[in-house]
């Protein structure tokens, strides 16, 4: 996909208001932490939110990304981690794939649960088409994929990939939910695996700082800031959730894709929440001169 087409995809999703000579008091210092890590949670079709996060980090947080040594992910989060680990230019292709996949599922009589429809086949074809031939070499030691061993029911983190095909199978395994995503689990090195979210939906690293990303409101570094139910939190599979009706709706949308317009809103929301995080941390990088027109994006209610 050309840069021109990629830019059109992103620009077409922004509802913008421009203000002249708006001054922001920005601190451009980058983190002092010696080791930085990223972690993306499992979230199904709301991975589109995390693509918005990845896009904003690529455009306005390159200094931060340069310091990131390891990227972890579970389920859809592992796919986002793979993109950032291998080739950020794939973000545009992933956004288009997410929209097309939602349309494909909406066209099925019973959605993703339609007999003979295979969500995993569509995902596998996309990965086969888009990942470069040396993707496994680029991802090894940098990408950490959370999976669940079907025999032991314990979490494992896979970070070294012997081939491109093994990398693809690891990413598929991290997203595999029995029956929902098919009847045959991915097999890696003779072992059967399923969705990493069953045992660890938001991995952390013991060394350095881990920046956690989630489309669900909670205590993550980058996530929606809901006002409703702000005093009630629960922890499930290593991830903290705020208890409110918006999160319950998001959980449903993670499994059953909402409309394309709603997906676009999540993509934009991911960008806005990431911009807020970068500004709060003092490492937001603007591509516009300080005295030029500043674009302010409107908040959504997701």
TrEMBL record:
Keywords, ordered alphabetically: Hydrolase, Lipid degradation, Lipid metabolism
PNPLA domain span: 38-208
Record SUPFAM superfamilies: FabD/lysophospholipase-like
A molecular-function term among this protein's GO annotations: triacylglycerol lipase activity
Entry annotated with the keyword Hydrolase: yes
Any single Pfam family the record assigns to this protein: Patatin
Motif position, GXSXG: 73-77
Superkingdom to which the source organism belongs: Eukaryota
CC annotations in GO: cytoplasm; lipid droplet; membrane
Gene Ontology terms: biological process: lipid homeostasis; triglyceride catabolic process
Residue span of motif GXGXXG: 42-47
InterPro entries from the UniProt entry: Acyl_Trfase/lysoPLipase (IPR016035), PLPL (IPR033562), PNPLA_dom (IPR002641)
Positions occupied by motif DGA/G: 195-197
Enzyme active site: 75 (nucleophile), 195 (proton acceptor)
Signal peptide extent: none
Protein name: Patatin-like phospholipase domain-containing protein 4 isoform X1
